[in-house]
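Recall the central idea of this unit: under ordinary conditions, the amino acid sequence of a chain determines the structure it adopts. In this exercise we apply that idea directly, starting from the sequence alone.
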Amino acid sequence: MSDQQDRIYATAHDQVARFSFDDTVVRVFPDMIRRSVPGYPTIIDMIGVLAARYAQPDTVLYDLGCSLGAATTAMAALTRDRACPLIAVDNSEAMIRQAGTLLEEAGLRERVSLQLGDVSTMAFEPCSMAVLNFTLQFIEPARRDALIRRLAEATVPGGILVLSEKITFADAAENQLQTDLHHAFKRNNGYSDLEISQKRSALENVLIAETLDVHRERLLKAGYRHIHVWFRCFNFMSLMAVR
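Accordingly, the structure predicted from this sequence is:
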């Protein structure tokens, strides 16, 4: 099952292991992401809305770093009338396996090509929409520019990239404030200070956040014409880059 409560860091660990999207995380992922990322359900719903507006016939829709396929499902649900194949990719076998089960239950499995792979090295087909929903932050920084450039080159005119990320701030006081507010959000959702601290240790050097300016510069340099911030809550943000 993938709807259990996240208790991974509820007891003290002698040594906090590096975070990975393994079977343990998959089992609690819906609860973890809902309680950890402000506005996550809204982001997923609006990805579907954006797909309904921007999906073009005979082009691919990508969900890159698809986890359990939430964004894939949202896109598929609102583009039933388009000839747009969906390709969902993740480098976690556990995630792909469970995503397949959930898509089957939703009646969408036949429309979606699920692929186990590294999005930072894959080749892309012509697409009208690609989604990196809290994915780029887990990719080695040295590989990010090339990935975004290849995505831009594959995106047809008028197509979009949706990029959701945890961000950092150049101003230290602003960064601390937004971090504190995020932690307050997690406490309000039932996480203890121990859980917050141990999760943060597990993610150190795994999730590497960047500033909004760095993201904007990368997207523009890759060839996207317009960059829009369409969602923000504390230190979480989603951008829409138009080709």
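The first helix runs from residue 23 to 36.
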